[in-house]
Structure formats: structure tokens, C-alpha cells
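Quick one: structure for this chain?
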Amino acid sequence: MIFAYTWRGAKNGINTIRSPDINLARKLIVQNSRSRAFNKRIVAGATPPDGAAIPLALYEVPAAAPNSNVAATSCSNILPFSSPSGTAANKPLETPSAANKAPMDGNEAAAAIAYAVSDVSFIYPITPSTVMGELVDQWSAEGRTNVFGNVMSVTEMESETGAAGALHGALAAGSLSTTFTCSQGLLLMVPNMYKIAGELTPCVLHVTARALAKHALSIFGDHQDVMAVRQTGWAMLCSHSVQEAHDLALVSHLATLRSSVPFLHFFDGFRTSHEINTIETIDNAAIKELLSQPIYADAIRHHRQRALNPTHPHQRGTAQGSDVYFQCAEAANPFYDRAFDHVVQAMEEVSAITGRSYKPYEYVGAPDADRVIVLMGSGSQAVEEAVHFMNDNGHKVGVIKVRLFRPWHSDSFLGCLPASVRRVCVLDRTKESGSAGEPLYQQVAAGLHEAEISHPDMPRRFIVGGRFGLASKEFLPSHAVACFENLEQHQPMRDFSVGIVDDVTRRSLPPSQLLPPGVSSLPPGTVQCLFWGVGGDGTVGANKEAIKIIASNTPLSAQAYFQYDAHKSGGVTVSHLRFGPEKIAAPYLVQQADYMAVNHQSYMAKYDILASLKPGGVLVLNTTFTTVESLTKYLPDKVKRQLAVLKPRLYLIDAWSVARDSGLGSKHVNMVMQIVFFNLSGVLPIDKATSLLKKSISKAYERKGPQVVSKNHAAVDAAISALQSVDIPAAWGRVETPAALVHPNPPAKVQSGSRWEFMETVAKPMLALEGDKLPVSVFSPEGFVPPGTTLLEKRAVAAQVPLWKAQNCTQCNVCALVCPHAAIRPVLAQLHELDAAGGAPASFDTIAATGHGLAGLQYRIQVSPYDCTGCDLCTNACTVDALEIAPMENLAEAEIANWEFASQLPVRDNLMDRSSVKGSQLQQPLMEFSGACEGCGETPYVKLLTQLFGDRLIIANATGCSSIWGGSAPSNPYTTNADGYGPAWANSLLEDNAQFGLGIATGTVQRRQALRRHVQGVLEAPAEAAPISGDLRDALSRWSDHWDEPEVANVVAKELQPLLEREKDAAPAIRELYGERDMLHKPSTWIIGGDGWAYDIGFGGLDHVLASGENVNILVLDTELYSNTGGQRSKATPMSAVAKFAAGGNARPKKDLGAIAMSYGDVYVASTSLHANYVQVVKAMTEAERYPGVSLVLCYSPCMQHGINAGLCSAVDESKMAVETGYWPLYRYNPSIKEDASHHRFQLDSKKLKGSISQIFAHENRFQILERKAPEVAKHMHGVMDESVHERFNKFKQMAAGDGSV
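Got it. Here's what it folds into:
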């Protein structure tokens, strides 16, 4: 062994001594341990070649290639331990002379290995692991071969349960199989995980560890899911970085073959899975050579020979009794006993071909440390940074990075722990309520305790446990230092949290005193950048390309990570980029940016953006205010003062104008801002940067067609000339910024109570992106959110908004019907309300209202500029040119005042029949300002539902797009009417929504039936037992007679409220009725979800509900793919459409859910398209709700994933085309209609075909991709679809005529 000792001298830079004598290395460590300039890193690895950049480390270098018969090296490089015996020997492997460097994220890093060594994969989308499935599907479609020369067989399943079952089957058939999942998806695999482990089957499951849905859903990373399956018998290997996700993926696949124990390879969701970093990839040739060794060839042969095969049959999966089950379970012990040895050997083999050393447990820090932190995952990098910082400042601390959690090997773990350590802190990225401690803590504590009992002379260690980083909560080096500081206390806190403020149970650690948050200890020369974008504007995608360009075309290391808020398109995105001369291992957000770009001017006022800008840094602002004078008027005083203090180099650009002039519209400014970054950063020569950026544009947008590519190229060419540098006026430094006065008890607070409190203490800080600072005490532990909180948001993301042209308006209200965000509404007012005394703005023009019941009223269409997303759908839907698009800055001031006035006018919702199109839009929408994409095709249906039945609506919502735009805290778009009534909304999971909704409906009916019995008991009781007034008796009688008829029961229910309040103390029976008064209201239960739920994962439950006969309604928002997870194929995806998980085009026809439902005969079924036929969808919803049984309403929902050529603003024309060509038929099947010669249950509302389905193919990119890539295949599939459309339509005509059976 050769040891290289390196340190940074106080004056003469980096020093290195190489010696085969480890004692000399130890001596040098002791001599320098108190030097503040000394960086005490002890990390295993290969010696860099002379002249290479040498990290400050103690390197242990194999003198020759390792052999599995050679004792394993120490995990700390100081304390040796012996390699366990019993593993097969392999021939030495040569280390590659040069590594293949590439920028990629953790998902790609792991997927590349999984694809290389697997033949079969069964996939299902779930964030954030979906990308791995998308990649293997794409590589398979491209014909990429693995190390065995095979193209992986990739099959999308209907659920994670199905993926696990198919995985189990493929393994039983002897294939090398894998899959990818996380969170609830992993939990759905648990039954099959037990089976696979019980059968000792080699397999690897790659998991992006993620939070579980508990009090709320979170897509972000922690270890709750993997810790929930630790009992299944799978080995568990944890990667701590993107590089490790690549390397340890291979270790997992090798170790499972060696051991016959299945492996769960996991890494932190988002923080590792979505972080882009420069890594060194493992060449397939090296993997192939490794797998050709006897131990692996024999393992693969053994796996195939034990497969199910009629030529050598056997039986598995039998039923056993109490006589033998126990013994068989114990028979597997030797496999698990040897599994650790196999992991060590596999790590050595991967180290041999990469030069990167891995150990199951690795110690980094002072050799004579007195305090140590133990943890798994990406947080270890932050702790390691803290360790270096503290040791450089005279402390003696260290960290043990746990890679192998199952099987646990206490002796090896203890071998990593310096003998000098007296206090240990174990950090878990999970929470197990009610336990004595989290899993890793319990494992370490048990190991230490057992060792101390077995070895009385061993020093006793004080051990504490804490929680960190749940749902990707930031974990900084300063938080790690706080943990070390806690260990230093006389009585350290034991069961603690770090990174939050727990002011309820007082279990959180205080901030670090030694290393305050924001102080950087990154390698010198590291440049940090922040890009504030708007969801859907391409900023994230552009920055992914930028960091890859930098990493691939410069000698710099690069890292990128991306933040998203809770909205769909139109939300806030923040891209965090770092690049520099040294490797970057910083798994946390940029704290102080050298370069900051703000892609939307409204962010300057809404968020404290400048708090993350380094003094003297670069600030680029996309704004229409491109002069100092206009910018001075626009920017808030606080921001001007901040700029004057920070003194950044300020640049302005109207990127919207550049994008519009290039044909990209006003939203997609990403490439404009990207070339500006390359120009100002100087990371590459601008000519080279431009060339590389254009090349990346061509690759990234080729799926969208050549026109999109050329428009982006044009935007790049025009950007630099539009950029201008601005000197910050000295006057900005003299601006006074007094604190805003807040009314101590505003009327809204009195009226709304807890709702107001929630908005002030929770919603406002969260919407300002300050949620990380909120303490525990402000939250509801159940995760409940009051209604109507989106009222606060005012996102102001639209560059252009509609302006009403009164002279052309026909008062049809269609613009309000199609608006996805309820941002444009009809307003009715009496003349006296519009005079000066009423406070009407001068610009609040109206016209005389027309229509039955509206005489004497004035009418206006009003838009809320700051809630509008600028989708332009309303102007395209208007057939009389009564709306025009105008720049936001031209009308914002006047229209904001108009909206505020209109909002104070009474809602006149009782003048027209709400079951008409116009009348429905005079009802208050009880779903408003959601986080949906601009132009969303889903929200208009749900908004209409709230206008028809909102005051009595209960919604069971499947996880998916509709749960994200409809239920992302703190934004609740479901609001209440003047009486306080509104939709009650809940989400359970994705797979169980139909059952969840059925349970709600059944439970509600049961409670109301019980209430009716109580009412009848009161009415039948003697007067002395229930002394009630005549008014109360009369109202209770009417309610009892019509309790299940909402038109009567709900009116009487309102009458009963004050009567019961007045007489509640008359008798115990009346008091009981008073306590149940909220059940007097007859609710309408709707089960809502997307096609991924209804057609795939939730179909079994949905089918059961269809067959139940219960009075429950189902609304399917059919976007024809998994919109929420990025556009993967579902069984609703049409043939030939290219989607993720269907990279070669979907080869199967769309599932006919309507036909399946109609086959029951007693289910109301409607197929609707709101954009195509306004009247039909209102009629269908009304009939469905009235039907006394199960109803199913299918809703065609255009989505941006369709790639409509003209954009979602043309969804009305696109939907009409879909209906007219027969692509999406409109019909209603009503079992309550009695069949006779002139009345039929099936009614075809799209009467005849018009045009050809080829028009749809020509208008949507999802079909055009296949036409460009495989025209003959597309032609064949399109022909099949055209034929099936005509065949279906002819069948429907027969059914509508009463000639065909359902």
C-alpha cells in the first residue's frame, strides 16, 4: 500500500508526502492536527497522477489491482478490519486509464447502470423516480443494447402493484429484471418484496427515497418510504451523491448476483435524483468484463436454471403450516450472513475499475475525534463540509457515512468509530411517531450497547438521535455544526429536530453559533448562480442545458439543482447553478449568488430575492421598464434600498419583446436569458457558447418540430443587442422604507376568524417563499387548510390580459365558462350601485343586462389582472370580438380597481336557471385562482361543477394534476359563498380514490339516515319529552319528508339553523339534533381524478364503485396521459401518440371506459367536451347529479402535453375539431329513461362526422412526432384509428336509434 498525505500549508499552498508507511502518515496527522490551515480529510481513493489537482486527503492506494482474497481495506483508512471469508475469488481487473466525465442527474446515473445489466423492466410513473423509467424506455425505443447485447424489454404497468407483480414473474422466469419507484409506490410493492426476498431471488429495486403521504402529500425527498420496507428482507444500500448513485447502482447489481439477496438501492429524492453534477461514468466494456468473471457467470447461470420451466419443473409459493414455516424462514440465514461480505467484495471490484473507493461504513474526520455524527444520504456531504470547517477551527469531530443499512454489520461499523469518540449523534431523515427513536438511531444504539456489554473495557459512548431534512427540508453545514454543538452540552438534547423551529414540544436545536447560515465553506473559485423563472417558461430546461454545456466544454466541475413551488405551469422556479475548478459536493441551495437572473419583474416586489445576492454580484432583470426613470417608478422602495446597499452590476432586458419578435410568444424567454448569462459570465467565449446553445436547442426541441427550433435560434441571436447596463442611482440609497401599518383588527379578521389567522400566519409567509422560517406552532397537525386562500396569491404572471369591449358583447358568458382560473366573470349591478356614492371607478363601464329575469340590471365582464394567467383562451372562445388582449402594464391599475369594486357587489345567483350556460356563470365560482397551467383543460369542468352544486359539494380527489392545482398548501382554490358553504375537498391517494369516495358517500348517507331517525323520534315523542315550538316542528316535518331531495331539504336546513340554536336547551333530544345540524344539508359526493387514476391504477376500485349501485358521481378529467408526472402514457392515450413510456408511439388503442361503464346497464354515462359543446356538458353534469345511482362523466381535457400547434389558447377550436371528426364523441346514456319508439337511453350529441381525423394528427405534436420519426408506422396507425372512429360512430348511431345494444 502507498499512502499519500496532503495538506494546505499556511504559506506555500498544497504539500504532499507519499510513503508506504502508514505510521508516518499517522505521525504527520498528529503533528498537524492543531493547525488551522490543516484540512483533516481522511478519505479512501486512488492517488491522482502527478500534476493533477489533489484534494486535501489521505489516500490509500492499492499497490496492485485488488483481489477478493486480499483483506479488505479499512473503512477509515486507519483502523483495519479483516474481510470476511466465504466469497469466491475473481481475477484482477485493470483500472481504466481515463474516466468518462459527463454531467447528469442521479436518476440518469442510476438508470444507466440498471439498463446496462438488466434485460427486463416494468415501470410506472411516480415522482421523482419517473425519470429512470422514462430513460430506460427511451433507450429501449432507440435500440440501445446492454452489456449482454440485448435491448431491454420495458413494459409500463397499471400501478406499482402491477409493476412489482410483473417483476416477480420475470424473475421467476429467470430474467435479470429491475424497476424504479418511491413513496406510496414502494409501499404498494411490499407484498411482492416479501415474496422476492423469501425466494432468495437476485434483483435490484432503485428508489428515489421520498416522503410518504401522511397529514399531507409531499413529492420531496426523505427516508420515510425506504424505512417503511426495511423489514421485507431486502438488503438496503444508500448512495450519498450523484456519483455514488452511479457507482453503487453497479455495486447493488453485483452484490445481488453474488448473494441471491434482493437489493434496494436508494438515494435522496430530488436532492440527489434531480441534482445534475459532473460524474465519472463506468464504461459498459468494464462492466461486461467484470460480469464475465466466474462468480457472476455462475450466479446468472444459477438464476436462470432455477427459473420456472416445464423441462425441469418445480413448485414455488406453496402454503405451509405451523410445523415447518418457522424452520424454512430460518433456513435463509446463511445467505444474509454472507451478504455483507458480498457487498464488500462488490465495492472492491467497482473500486478497481473506477479508482473510487467505497466501504459500507466510511469515517471522515479527525482521527482523535471526540464527537461524531452518523447518517445516510446526501446530508452526509453537508456534514462532511461542517467537519472540515470545525476541524480547521480547532475542534475534533468526524462523520460516519452509512451506505449499507441492511444487512447491518455492527463490528464493521464500530471499526470505523475512532476509539477517542465519547459522544455520538445519529441523524435520521425520517420520523417514526411513537417510537423510541428513528431506525438508524436504534440500529446504532443497539450495536453500541451490545458491544459495551460484550466488552466491559470499551469506553461508553453517550448517544443521541435527531431528525433532519424531511420532505427535502434544507440541511446546511450550519445545521450539522449545531448538532456537534449540542453534543458538547452538559446534557445534550436527545430526541431533537434540526433545521426547523419547534416551539410546541421544544425539541429543535438552536442555530449554530460557530457557523451561521449563509456562511460559505465551498471550494475557492466556485461560482454560484440563481435563475428565477416562471413554471413553463423553459428556464429550468435551459439551465439544465447550460450546466451540461459548461461541464462538457470546460475543465470546470458543475452542479445544478432546481426548486419548484406548488403550482403547475406559471409557478415560481429557482435554478441553482454552481461551477468551479474543484469537485462540488454541496447538497443545499445557493445561499449567496454571484450571478442572479430574474425572469419576471413582478418577483422583485413579491419575494425577497435580493437576500440571496452577493454584494457586488451580477443582477439581470427581465422587465418592460428598461429605463432608470420607469424602473424607479416600478420598483418598491425596499428593493431600491437593497440595490443601493448591495451595489450589483445591474442589467436590464425586455426578454418578452425579444421572444415575441422571434415568434415564441411572450412567455418563453428562457433562451434569451440563457445567452445573456453566457455573455455576462464569460465561462465560455460567446461565439462558442452561442454555437453550443443552438446545438442544444436543436436537440432539446427537435420533438417539437423545426419551426420551434428556428424561433429559439432567432431569440438567441437577438438577445445580446437588447441587453443594457444600468448604473444604480445614488438616490435609491436615500429612500426611506417605513414599516407598513397593519390594522390591528381588520373587519376580515372578525368575520373569518381562524381563516384570517391562517392566511396571515401561514399562507402569506408561504406564498412569499418564507415557509422555511415558520415555527411548528402555526400549523394544524392534521394538515387541514381553510377555504379560499388563493384569494391572497395575486401571482401577476400574465404579460397580457383580456380587455372587455362592451359594444360587441352579447352577454353569453362563454368567456367565463372556459376560463381555467375563474379570473374573468360576468357582473350584475343595479344603477344606484354604480353612482359615485357607491364607489364605482370611472372606468367601470356597463351595459344594460339582457335575458329573462335581468331587467333593470347593468352588465359587465370583469377580469382580475393579477389572477389571470394570460392564456388567451377567453378571447379565442369569444365569437363576436368582445375581448381583446392588451399589455398588463397598460391596464393593470384601472382593472385592479374595477375588480376590487366588482368583488364587493352582491352575487345575484337566483335570477336565472343555473342549469343553463348563461345562468351557470352567474353563480359564484367556488373554485378560483387555482395553481393550474395557463389554458388548463381540467379546471373549467371542476369550476362549473362548483357553480352547479358547490354549496353542497363533497369531493374525493385522486392524486394527480387536479390534486396539485387543487390542493397544494397553503393554496386552497375551493372557497365559500356568502353563507359560508362551499366544497369540502379531500385527497387520499392515487390508487384508492374511488373507494375513498364511496366510503365518504356511504358514511354520509349513514349519518343522515341516523339523523332522520332522530328527527322522526322528536316528532313522534310526547310534547313533554320534546317541548318544541310550532315553527321548529313544522320545519322538522318538512325536512323529514324531503330529507333526500336537495332542492327542498337544503332550503329547510337553513331555516332550521336559527330555530335549533334558539331551542337547543329545550330537551336532550333537541340538543342532540343541534349537535348534528350540519348533516341536515344534503350533500352531493363527486369522485374526481385523471385518466391515469381512472383507466389504470384506480380502475379496479372504480369498476367496483360502478357496480355498487350507490348514489355517487364520478368525474374523469381525461388528458389522455399522466399529466402530473410529466406526460407518460396511460390506457387513455390514443394509438400513435408519442408520450413518455411510449417513445416509439403508443401501439394500442385507447381503452373505452364509457363502454365498460354502460355495460352495467344501470350507470349514467356521459362523454363531454366543455370547449366543444357548452350546453351538453351543463346538461350532462345536471343529469348525472340528479340520477339516483352511479354516474360517470368523461371530460375531454386539452393539455399542454398534447403539443397543440397553436397552443392551448386554441383549445376551443381543437376540441370542436375532435368532436366533429369523431375523435371524441359526445353522448349521454341515462338508465332512468324508459325505452320506447321515441325515447332511448343512449343519446348521441355529436350528430354527424365532419372532416377527417387526420386534422387532429396535423394539429398536435404528440402525433406529429411519430410522423416525422416513422412515417410508415404513423400512416398505418392513423389508418387503423380512422377506421375505428367510423366504426364506433356507426355503432353509436344505431344505439341512439334504439337499434343497437349497449
